[in-house]
Amino acid sequence: KAGVTQTPRYLIKTRGQQVTLSCSPISGHRSVSWYQQTPGQGLQFLFEYFSETQRNKGNFPGRFSGRQFSNSRSEMNVSTLELGDSALYLCASSGEVWVPGELFFGEGSRLTVL
Amino acid sequence: AQKVTQAQTEISVVEKEDVTLDCVYETRDTTYYLFWYKQPPSGELVFLIRRNSFDEQNEISGRYSWNFQKSTSSFNFTITASQVVDSAVYFCALSEGTTSGTYKYIFGTGTRLKVLA
Asked: How far apart are CA B12 and CA B29, in angstroms?
């Protein structure tokens, strides 16, 4: 069974630009969530999608957005990048529907903002 | 408000020593779930255990054991006879219900464990 795939793995952007990250969940998983990981802050929850609907959202500014497609693949977008957006962005999928199950994580997309 | 505290930022032990990673949580819900994840140097987080709030039984899996105590809101993780391959960052997480009837996860800041040969 293929794992969670995130692309790109590494990217460098400059302030003010925007970026789109992609996540392909494990086949059959309909829940996809996104996290921002920075040193000292741990994993901060961004949002969760289930069957193309955003079910939950974390405390991030509106510059952070996401969507999920009918095949469960998900994208997240960050507009007007700031230096503080430099982080590892992790995507996780889950096969559970109504209870919090095991999250399967991708290797992440490491974003550097210059 | 929900919160997960992992007060130990970094721990170093010598191989074969036992080590306990602490996790303290805060929640107002009576139904919630607790997790531990391991993030090795390669970066991909790996699930270790899930516990729901109604199951306070301790769990042992090989060299790993977990102690869940609702009275102290703690869910501690012990590695017995540590090995170099245990070197990683370990995250404790809490999942509780939301107003939409679903759950979301709150992670602690992680504890970096270094096991020295």
From this structure: 35
Q: How far is CA B16 from CA A107, B11, B48, B90, B115, in A?
A: 29, 14, 20, 18, 9
- Which pLDDT band, with edges at 50, 70 and 90, does B91 fall under? very high
Inter-residue contact A74 to A67 (CB < 8 Å): yes
User: Considering only CB atoms, which chain A residues are within 8 Å of B37?
Assistant: 103, 105
Convert the pLDDT of each residue in A77-104 to its tens digit: 999 999 999 999 999 999 877 778 889 9
Give pLDDT, residue A1: 61
Burial of B4: CB neighbours in 10 Å, binned 0-12, 13-18, 19+? buried
Q: Chain A residue with minimal CA distance to B52?
A: A100
Average pLDDT, chain B: 92
CB-closest option in A33, A102, A105 to B50: A102
Parts of chain A with a pLDDT under 70 = 1
How many Cβ atoms sit within 10 Å of the Cβ of residue A8? 12
